[in-house]
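Lab notebook, bench 4. Continuing the backlog of folding jobs that were queued last week. Each job is logged with the same field layout so the records can be merged later without manual cleanup. Today's entry covers DUF126 domain-containing protein, a 141-residue chain. Filled in by technician R.K.

JOB TYPE: sequence-to-structure
TARGET: DUF126 domain-containing protein
LENGTH: 141
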Amino acid sequence: MTQQTTIRVNRAFGDVVEGEAVVSEEGFSPRYDLDRWSGEISRPGHKLEGTNIKDKILFFPTAKGGIAAGWAFFDIKTKGIAPKAFIFGVTNPVMVQGAVFANITITEGWDQPVADVVQTGDIVRVDPAAKTIVIVKKKNG
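JOB STATUS: finished
OUTPUT FIELD FOLLOWS
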């Protein structure tokens, strides 16, 4: 049996979700980085430019921006193009409020450098009640 890697988070809200990880070295703003009609990261030069966020579990070191998150998260949720979860190193109260309002799982803080253990394409399970993220299957494993 293969041992699973577990990341512990500091704060979390939402349902248990499982899905494909998308890992970014760059922060995220739902207002400036995202095309809210297609679900693609659309800001020219963003390291994830062209990546679709629908049903993904998104790892970002920081949240960028503020007040637009509340309505932007709800907007993408109602359009059916929302991610399963936002996993932030550092976020802000407005991003959390937006995720809670839209019922999108969100976490903040991690006990180890995410880029060292999670790669885009890995399958991960986020359990907010347990404050854990488990790598269920490695992309190349």
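OBSERVATION: Residues 69-78 form the longest helix (10 residues).
SIGNED: R.K.
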